[in-house]
Amino acid sequence: MFATPAFAQAAGAAAPSGTDGLLSMLPMLIGFIAIMYFFMIRPQQQRAKQHKAMISAIKRNDTVVLSSGLIGKVTRVEDAEISMEVASGVNVRVVKAMITEVRAKGEPAPANDTKAA
């Protein structure tokens, strides 16, 4: 009702069709894939490589932390498993992939600051 004929003709213009629309979106798609690679995929690959190197370097008498939070001393190292002492005389067999941290041998225990007054 209030539209002039010039506005009505401009509204009927069609968007680019077929390959024109795809070619205009291709640089944005490539940029999105590059961002995904550098912010998500590559850091995960680097963490996996570091974890594999850490697991392959485990030796006897190392203190390890499992993904469940269990801490113990390595008593035997095999191909896919380790034996870990969690208490004196208590050995547990653990799959190497469950190890999240290897602590330095002889790392001091945290101080207990709860002194009686």
UniProtKB/TrEMBL annotation:
Its main location: membrane. InterPro entries: Preprotein_translocase_YajC. It comes from the Bacteria. Keywords: Cell membrane, Membrane, Protein transport, Translocation, Transmembrane, Transmembrane helix, Transport. The keyword Nucleus does not apply. SMART domains: YajC. One of its GO terms (biological process) is protein transport. It is a single-pass membrane protein. The chain crosses the membrane at residues 22-41. It is found in: Cell membrane. One of its GO terms (cellular component) is plasma membrane. It holds the Pfam family YajC. The SecYEG-SecDF-YajC-YidC holo-translocon (HTL) protein secretase/insertase is a supercomplex required for protein secretion, insertion of proteins into membranes, and assembly of membrane protein complexes. While the SecYEG complex is essential for assembly of a number of proteins and complexes, the SecDF-YajC-YidC subcomplex facilitates these functions. Part of the SecDF-YidC-YajC translocase complex. The SecDF-YidC-YajC translocase forms a supercomplex with SecYEG, called the holo-translocon (HTL). PANTHER family: SEC TRANSLOCON ACCESSORY COMPLEX SUBUNIT YAJC (PTHR33909). Belongs to the YajC family. NCBIfam families: yajC. This is Sec translocon accessory complex subunit YajC. The gene is yajC.
